[in-house]
Amino acid sequence: xxxxxxxxxxxxxxxxxxxxxxxxxxxxxxxxxxxxxxxxxxxxxxxxxxxxxxxxxxxxxxxxxxxxxxxxxxxxxxxxxxxxxxxxxxxxxxxxxxxxxxxxxxxxxxxxxxxxxxxxxxxxxxxxxxxxxxxxxxxxxxxxxxxxxxxxxxxxxxxxxxxxxxxxxxxxxxxxxxxxxxxxxxxxxxxxxxxxxxxxxxxxxxxxxxxxxxxxxxxxxxxxxxxxxxxxxxxxxxxxxxxxxxxxxxxxxxxxxxxxxxxxxxxxxxxxxxxxxxxxxxxxxxxxxxxxxxxxxxxxxxxxxxxxx
Length: 309
Prior knowledge:
There is one protein chain. The protein has one domain: 3-Layer(aba) Sandwich (Rossmann fold), CATH 3.40.50. It is built from ten helices and ten strands. The chain is α/β, with parallel strands linked by helices. Helices cover about 30% and strands about 20% of the residues. The two termini are about 30 Å apart.
């Protein structure tokens, strides 16, 4: 099934090698373990067809009664196979997840990798409601959206209202909140936090790596303050949700520490307690890239999917 492309319209699956939406089909990722199936899901919210790579763990068997928790991840083209990425780096999600499963440390998940496009990535992963109060049009220019409209709400709606029903229809998932998680890095970290705040009934946990708190150097403190205000007013109930944050200390990750401390302080004031439903980590010397996230992704995986939870 690795090379089969399923093109999805609503919940009707058609198997084939159909290409539409983007002019060039993204390279197929080949995992070191487990299996990847490719979906092409039409998004009415984004008015485009989105490529989605679904990783299934070793010993996956759709014919049994077993059901799986689901981890949704952004920038899905960078998750599994470094030979297909723009910078020759990948999260190595397949290898790390398999290692933790074999060691009995985590529950085997289904991982849903949502591809991004460089031309629209920032606009689609932008926490729209978080920045609206700070002056949306001006802020759009400050964070360099390349003339694209902010579509964070449309992207979030696509994940929850279009993609998740498709995934739950095709695969034997545990579709409830406690078994539905989201994770990403940089702008994907922001969107992961945004999703759990915007749809707290859908997502029970979020992993936010190298969260891009400050927007851009030109934006000064305005973007970070907008995010802190959003976290203050929108963070979901600590009794039912879990949060993971981390960052490195070099390249642009060097700017994240003070903002992350503010976000953690807000979370603690709202009842989040380490290690029960809150975890954070500073990766000293780590830069802002996939190799760095691959080097520490075992930590959020244990937090999100650990057998202890």
